[in-house]
Every structure is written in structure tokens, then in C-alpha cells.
Specification:
Two copies of one chain form a homodimer. Chain A is elongated and about 45 Å long. The first copy, chain A, is an alpha+beta fold and 112 residues long. In chain A, a hairpin with a 2-residue loop joins strand 2 and strand 3. In chain A, helix 1 packs antiparallel against helix 4 and helix 2 crosses helix 4. A three-stranded antiparallel beta sheet of chain A has the order 1-3-2. Chain A has six helices and three strands, in the order ααβααββαα. The interface between A and B is large, with 41 and 42 residues. Chain A binds a DNA duplex (30 and 30 nucleotides) through helix 3 and helix 4.
DNA sequence: GGATCATTTCCACAAACTTCGAAATGAGGA
DNA sequence: TCCTCATTTCGAAGTTTGTGGAAATGATCC
């Protein structure tokens, strides 16, 4: 992941509704959720939700699939993992950052 | 870390200059860098840099310390680790997200 | 084809963000 | 005290983001 993609993904998650939305989709798992169900769960008007879904999709963090009349959204786990890997790389790359859940190895660092 | 803090941290990093700035401070390590040196390294005017430094500081991702006439900035590693932990929690909490560098354990999940 | 349901696009507006020159602040040195 | 250096604050302009109602799209059923 390059820094431009990372900025897009970070910006996509840096918003109350979108972070809640992404968490909801992560919880929903492989089945995903329909746009309408998401709007209801989050209490956000459809048009606003559609805007946020587009933002997350533009950042590559979620994917959509049409099923009959509804559109199912799913979290894109590999994209999220790539973001976390990028942040760990930038957190631990050059200096003392051992412990606290940041135990990336030197080998992993070089290939990330 | 709660979602509000996560949003602040994500928003602070979701900007070209600030992401570059944070990476620079991570590379600089424990010695940190003076504001002027950062501005020169990034090619950003002092007043603009000061704005971005304040944003990162507001999100708790960096810390400052006066040394004689200059002000030294340092990355706040624990804050960054907390952010990564929060994202891993939200990435892997409920469903299949094994592999791809996302190997948080169930025990870690519960305490994060 | 016509009705209906789910979702998106359009639009306009308010709020927040980014930028950077100029002036202000604050710490040391002479 | 006065001067200088490092940094921040102020102010004003342009840009981007978030919001939600109304209209448009697209798929399904009768």
C-alpha cells in the first residue's frame, strides 16, 4: 500500500458515521448487509448513507454486490489488513516501538 | 481507545503533509525533531507546519518539548499502538479475518 | 406495460479544513 | 535592556466535506 491509498483509507474511516458503518459491516461478516438495513441500523437518511458508502468504496474498504433488488455491502478485509500493515510499518519502522501490540519483526518490516 | 479518539487520530493522519510528518517523526525516533527542521525537510511553510503539528498534537499522536530556543516534536508511540490495536479490533472482532498480518488472538481481543 | 420497491444522483447550503503571509510571542545572548 | 532567532497566532481566501429532500435510476412482480 502506498501513502496515497493509506490517506484515502484513513480519511474514509475518519468520520463518525463511516467508522460505525465499517464496524457494522465487519460484524456482519461474509453475509454483508443491504444498504437499507444499514441506513436503518445507523439511523442515517438514505441519501447520506449512500454518500458515505461511496466514500468507503472509493477508498477500497468495502465492496458491493447486487442481489435481486437490494445491494449488499461487505467489508473488504484484505484492504483493511493492508492499512493496518501500513500503519504498523510507519509506527515501528525505524526505532524503538517494542511491546504494546506492535511486535512486527525486522523481516516483516522489509517485505511490507 | 474509544471511537471518538480513533476518529481524531485517523483524521489527523488522513492528510498528505501530516502523514509525511508523522512518518518523519517515527523515523527520527526518540531524539525527535525541531519544528524548523521538520518544515525544511517537508518543504512546508512554517505557519502551515505549525497548523499540522497542532492537529497531530490535538489527536495525541505527537508530543512537544521545549529545548532552549527550539521546540522538539516526538511521535507518541503508545498512542499509535492504541490506534492500530483499535483498528485490529474492528477488523477482526467478529468474523473471518485470519492471515494477512491480522493475527490478533482472542485473548488480546478481549483486553484491547 | 405499469406499479412498486431499493438505492443512487442531483442540488444547494452550512461547516470544517488547508494554505500562507504578516504580526505577535517567548527564550537566549550581548 | 535590546536584539535576534524559533515558533506560533491571526486573518483572509479558496477548497473540501457532510447533510438531506426531491427526483431519477434500475430491478422485480403482476
Amino acid at each position: 500500500m502506498d501513502s496515497t491509498s493509506a490517506i484515502d483509507a484513513l480519511g474514509a474511516l475518519a468520520q463518525e458515521h463511516r467508522l460505525a458503518l465499517f464496524r457494522l459491516l465487519v460484524q456482519a461478516g461474509g453475509n454483508g448487509m443491504a444498504a437499507g438495513a444499514i441506513a436503518e441500523a445507523l439511523g442515517v437518511p438514505n441519501s447520506s448513507l449512500s454518500f458515505h458508502l461511496a466514500q468507503l468504496r472509493g477508498a477500497g474498504l468495502i465492496e458491493q454486490e447486487r442481489q435481486h433488488r437490494t445491494i449488499i455491502y461487505r467489508a473488504n478485509y484484505p484492504a483493511m489488513n493492508a492499512l493496518v500493515a501500513y500503519l504498523m510499518e510507519n509506527c515501528c519502522a525505524a526505532s524503538g516501538c517494542e511491546g504494546d501490540g506492535c511486535e512486527i519483526t525486522a523481516d516483516e518490516r522489509e517485505t511490507a
